[in-house]
Amino acid sequence: MVDKINENDASHAMFGLNEPAGQSAAPGQSPAAGPSQPVYAPPPAASSPFSFSGGQVLVLLVIALVILSGINLYMLVTTRRQFEDHAAKQADQMNLLTRRLDSGDERYAQLRGQFQVAMEKQGLTEQELARARSLATNVQKQQKAAVQELNAAIARKASADDVNKLQSDANAKFGSLSGDIAGTKADLEATKQALSGTKGELSGAIARTHDELVALAHRTDRDYFEFSLGKKNSKQKVGTVMLELAKTNPKKNQFTVNLYADDKRIERKDKAINEPVYFYVQGASSALELVVNKLGKDSISGYVSTPKGFFAGTPNVLAARPGA
């Protein structure tokens, strides 16, 4: 038994297996010779204060992504709010411009109607009438195109550059309209001598009573149709035009009517008694004229004047008068 243990110790000593952990034989000395000296392992390498493990790097990346996402979201919300505010301001400007277009159309309709009636009453040539009608038709087409472009811009929320371009185009067209009106005024000035008596004739061209209307119908080459609306929102059809009373203001002698023709509604607001109101109906050679010569609380009466024969089949004031 003792021999076996010694044999094992000798084999272990040969390969250095009997030495304590961390000790080794000195160079040139057999492992079994001499007392064993302590041997120390090298100290562990010092870790850097800026070194991170893989998990810490992933956490830092996630935090950086969250911060960047928050910044991008804030910038997106801020930009969207600014764009919506800008789009709202542009929409308000386009609505204001549209209302100005409608107001300009009504004012021009009044001017053109008065001009045409004056020319008809003075017997101007058919060539001059055709020129005036062509001018008015072109201007109305330009105005309609401008309004359609503005509505399209509103529908697709056009950018500021597009809105400014449309507004510039509309202003240019209005400038062209002003030039056309200036040319018309020049034509009127050229015929000043022929129209020297127009003021007196037009002053007498408004009939304030039934008898005056009959006399006016005999004197002019137009048809006249009387109407009477006895209450608010009442309607009466005159030829192809439907008249509707919207409101009256007896203190100011003003009224508001709606005219329905060509599948559209035409509003004439706050008009005065005995004031000619001109409007256009498709197929008419010149403007139609509405005059209110009697006004009460929620009631008006007057007449509509049209080109000769325009309301075929509808009795005019002469046909409806016995013995006419």
Structural class estimated from helices and strands = alpha+beta
Instruction: List low-pLDDT spans.
Output: 19-34, 193-204
End-to-end separation = 163 Å
Reading off the top of the CATH hierarchy, the class of the domain at 204-307 is best stated as Mainly Beta
Lateral strand order in the biggest sheet: 1-8-7-6
Proportion of residues in β-strands: 15-25%
| CATH topology descriptor of the domain at 204-307 | Tick-borne Encephalitis virus Glycoprotein, domain 1
Instruction: Please give the radius of gyration in angstroms.
Output: 49 Å
Please tally the helical runs, counting DSSP H or I stretches of 4 or more residues: 6
Query: Helical residue percent?
Result: 40-55%
Q: Helices and strands, in N-to-C order?
A: HHHHHHEEEEEEEE
User: What is the makeup of the main sheet?
Assistant: 4 strands, antiparallel
Counting DSSP E segments of at least 2 residues, the number of strands comes to 8
Global morphology: elongated
CATH architecture of the domain at 204-307: Sandwich
Mean pLDDT: 76
Keywords:
Tick-borne Encephalitis virus Glycoprotein, domain 1, 324 residues, 4-stranded antiparallel β-sheet, 6 helices, alpha+beta
How would you describe the overall organization of this protein?
The chain contains six helices and eight strands, in the order H-H-H-H-H-H-E-E-E-E-E-E-E-E. With 324 residues, it is α+β, with helices and mostly antiparallel strands. Among the domains are: 102 residues; 104 residues, Tick-borne Encephalitis virus Glycoprotein, domain 1 (Sandwich), CATH 2.60.98. Strands 1-8-7-6 form a four-stranded antiparallel beta sheet. The chain has a four-stranded antiparallel beta sheet with strand order 2-3-4-5, with no helix packed on it. Helix 2 packs antiparallel against helix 3. The longest helix has 69 residues. About 9% of the residues have low confidence.
